[in-house]
Specification:
about 450 residues, 17 helices, mainly alpha, about 80% helix
Length: about 450
C-alpha cells in the first residue's frame, strides 16, 4: 500500500460527505428488502422462494433504470462541474422519458404474463403461483419508482444526497408498518400474505415519489425544471447521450441477466438452494451498501473534476478509491461472517437451507475485496470517465464466457454441492480485478463527454 494513500484528507472528507448518505439510503433500501424477506419468511419456504424469484423481475427492471440513469449521471456530474443547470435539466428530462417508457413495458409484461416469466426461474407450481400474485400486485409501483429513480441519481450527481436518504427512510417506515398489518392481518386488515407485502411496497413507492418531487421544487434544487427545460434536448444531444448511455444500459442488462441465470441455476437445483441464495444476497446487501456508496460518491467527484478540466485530480481520485475499497472490504467481510450465526433466529427455514447459507457466507466473505475493487472501478471510475464500452466487455466476457457456464456445469452435470456452485460463480471477481488493474493503469478510461 503506498504511503500516500491517506495523505489527501480533503478527498476522503468530500468522498464520505457524498458517500455516507448514499450508503445510508441503500442500507435503508436493503433493510426494506430484508424486512419483506424476514416477514414473508415467517410464512414458509415456498413464500420466501416465490417473492425472491418475483423480485428478480423487479431487479431486472431496476438494472435497466440504473443503466439509463447511471449513463445520464455521467453527463450530470460533468455538467455540474461546469455549473450548467440547463444541461442538467435536459439530461434529467431525457432520463424521465426513458424510465417511464421502460416502466410501462415492465408493467404490461407482469400484468399479462407473470406465470410465464416466473416459469423461467422455477418449475415449482406453488412458487410460480405465489410469485405471480406478488408481481401483479406490485406492478402499479413501477412508473413512480422509475421517475423517483431518475430524481435520486440526479440529486446524487449534484451533491444533493440528503433528500434521497430522508425519502427512503420515510418509505421504509411506511413499508414496515403496512407489512405488519397487511401480511399477517391486524385490526380491520385481513391477512393478505405475499400480496400484502406488495401492497405495502406500492404505497411506500408512491409516498417516496411525492416527497422527492415536492421537496425538490420547494427548495428549487438544480433538478427542479420546467417542462420546456426537461424537453430542451436536441437530436445532437440525444445522439451523444445514447452513444454513452446505451453501453451502460447494455452493461446493466447483461449483468442483470447474468444474475437472473444465477437464480435459474439455484432454482433448478432445488427450492432449498434458491432460498439459501436469496437469504445470502439479502443479508449481504446490508454491508454491500458501503461499496455502492463509495462507487457512486467517487463517480460524482471524478465526473466533476473532468467537467472542471482537472484531469490529473480525476486520475488521482481513481487510484485512491481502487486501493482503498479492497482494504475496507476485507474489514467489512469480517463483520459480515458473524451474521450467518444469527440466521436461525431470523428465518423460519429448514436445516438444509441454513447449512447451505452458512457455507455460502464463507465464500461471499472471501470474494469481498475483489468485488469491491470491481464495483469502484466500473461504477466509480470508468463510468465517470465515459469509458462505457469497456464496462460492457468487462462484464460480458468474464461472466458469460467463464463463471455462468462453469456454474451451470457444476450444478447440472457434476451435481456439485450448493456452496461449490456459488464459489464458481463468485470466482469471476478475481479475474475481473486483474483486467481492471490493466485498464486503470492505461489511463484510457478518462473522457470528457460534454464538450464536442
Amino acid at each position: 500500500m503506498p504511503a500516500s494513500l491517506f495523505k489527501d484528507r480533503q478527498f476522503y472528507k468530500r468522498l464520505f460527505i457524498i458517500s455516507v448518505p448514499i450508503m445510508l439510503q441503500n442500507l435503508i433500501n436493503s433493510f426494506v428488502n430484508m424486512v419483506d424477506t424476514v416477514m414473508i419468511g415467517r410464512l414458509g419456504t415456498t413464500e420466501i422462494a416465490a417473492v425472491g424469484l418475483a423480485n428478480n423481475v423487479f431487479f431486472l427492471f431496476t438494472m435497466v433504470l440504473f443503466g439509463i440513469c447511471s449513463g445520464g449521471a455521467i453527463f450530470t456530474a460533468q455538467f455540474w462541474g461546469k455549473k450548467d443547470i440547463r444541461g442538467i435539466r435536459k439530461n434529467t428530462g431525457l432520463c424521465f422519458i426513458l424510465n417511464t417508457a421502460v416502466a410501462f413495458l415492465f408493467t404490461l409484461a407482469v400484468i399479462c404474463i407473470p406465470e410465464r416469466i416466473l416459469g423461467v426461474y422455477s418449475r415449482d407450481p406453488e412458487v410460480i403461483r405465489a410469485g405471480a400474485v406478488y408481481l401483479k400486485t406490485l406492478s402499479p409501483s413501477f412508473i413512480p419508482f422509475g421517475i423517483s429513480f431518475a430524481f435520486v441519481l440526479t440529486l446524487r450527481s449534484t451533491e444533493r444526497v440528503t433528500l434521497a436518504m430522508v425519502t427512503t427512510l420515510i418509505a421504509l417506515a411506511i413499508n414496515v408498518v403496512l407489512n405488519y398489518f397487511l401480511i399477517f392481518g391486524a385490526g380491520p386488515f385481513p391477512a393478505m400474505g405475499v400480496a400484502g407485502a406488495a401492497v405495502a411496497t406500492v404505497i411506500a413507492r408512491y409516498a417516496e415519489f411525492i416527497v422527492l418531487a415536492v421537496v425538490s421544487y420547494k427548495k428549487k434544487y438544480e433538478i427542479a425544471g420546467t417542462f420546456r427545460e426537461y424537453t430542451g434536448f436536441n437530436r445532437a444531444f440525444v445522439g451523444r447521450f445514447l452513444v454513452i448511455t446505451a453501453p451502460v444500459i447494455l452493461n446493466e442488462c447483461i449483468w442483470a441477466l447474468g444474475i437472473t441465470v444465477q437464480n435459474v441455476i439455484f432454482a433448478r437445483t432445488g427450492t432449498d438452494a434458491i432460498a439459501a441464495f436469496n437469504i445470502t444476497n439479502t443479508v449481504s446487501q446490508l454491508t454491500w451498501v458501503v461499496f455502492i456508496g463509495l462507487g457512486n460518491g467517487v463517480a460524482v467527484l471524478i465526473g466533476k473534476k473532468i467537467g472542471e478540466g482537472d484531469e490529473e485530480a480525476a486520475r488521482d481520485y481513481a487510484r485512491r478509491i481502487t486501493a482503498f475499497a479492497p482494504l475496507l472490504a476485507a474489514a467489512v467481510a469480517l463483520c459480515l461472517f458473524p451474521l450467518s450465526k444469527l440466521l436461525p433466529l431470523i428465518f423460519n427455514v429448514n436445516a438444509a437451507v441454513l447449512g447451505f447459507t452458512s457455507l455460502m457466507f464463507i465464500v461471499l466473505c472471501c470474494s469481498y475485496p475483489f468485488r469491491a475493487f470491481n464495483m469502484c472501478l466500473i461504477v466509480g471510475v470508468c463510468r465517470a470517465g465515459g469509458d462505457t464500452v469497456f464496462c460492457v466487455l468487462f462484464e460480458m466476457v468474464v461472466m458469460w464466457a467463464y463463471s455462468l457456464p462453469l456454474g451451470a456445469v457444476m450444478a447440472f452435470i457434476v451435481r456439485a454441492p450448493v456452496w461449490v456452485i456459488y464459489l464458481c460463480l463468485c470466482s469471476e471477481d478475481l479475474f475481473k480485478m486483474f483486467w481492471g488493474l490493466w485498464r486503470l493503469k492505461s489511463g484510457r478510461w478518462l473522457n470528457n463527454v460534454i464538450d464536442g
